[in-house]
Amino acid sequence: MNHEYEKARLAALESLDILDTSPSEQLDALTKQVQTEFKCKTCLVSLVAEDRQWFKSRQCMDATETPRNISFCTYAIAEEEYLIVPDAKADKIFANNPLVTGETYIRAYAGFILRNKDGYELGTLCLLYDEPKAFSSDNIDTLKQYARITENIIFSEHLQ
């Protein structure tokens, strides 16, 4: 992302006034449903700020944020729609990431971009696995639908 675009993206995120707010019952119910349906270790609604990713909703993750420089979601928001990493230990970008080699032990990742009405990438609905995981085209379609539902919840709770 270019610098001007990133400034505008961060301004769009800030305009929501969502960072560091209380948990959302609707988002927590949704991430729990996604976690159950996809049998993932962790499901998050991650918002990518300037120097951190902050979790508006999290299932089976104690941390409320992680540094952006180690964030998988930073890479995801640079994609068109989503980022799938079937085996992070075998991925040249993520193999040495402390979230892969350390206590979090991410082995597979799927992150689906959450956008505002102007198209700015605010974060992701993401799934983390502690073992390699392949995703079918049906899985991808279902996760896209869940990402759109997530956006609707965020914008109904934090009107722009």
Summary?
This protein has helices at residues 3-15, 25-38, 72-76, 98-101, 137-157, and strands at residues 42-48, 52-59, 65-67, 82-85, 108-115, 121-129.
CATH architecture: 2-Layer Sandwich
Amino- and carboxy-terminal Cα gap: 23 Å
Main pleated sheet: 6 strands, antiparallel
The CATH superfamily is known as GAF domain
The portion of residues assigned to helices is: 25-40%
Class from secondary-structure proportions? alpha+beta
Average pLDDT: 95
How many helix segments? 5
Q: Supply the number of structural domains.
A: 1
Under CATH at level 1, the class stands as Alpha Beta
The portion of residues forming beta strands comes to 15-25%
Uncertain runs with pLDDT below 50, 5 residues or more?
none
Strand arrangement within the widest β-sheet reads 3-2-1-6-5-4
Fill in the CATH topology.
Beta-Lactamase
Total strands: the figure is 6
State the order of secondary-structure elements, H for helix, E for strand: HHEEEHEHEEH
Backbone shape: globular
Radius of gyration: 14 Å
How does this model look, in words?
This protein is an alpha+beta fold and 160 residues long. It has a single domain, classed as GAF domain (Beta-Lactamase, 2-Layer Sandwich), CATH 3.30.450.40. It has 5 helices and 6 strands. The protein has a 6-stranded antiparallel sheet with strand order 3-2-1-6-5-4. β5 and β6 form a beta hairpin. The mean pLDDT is 95.
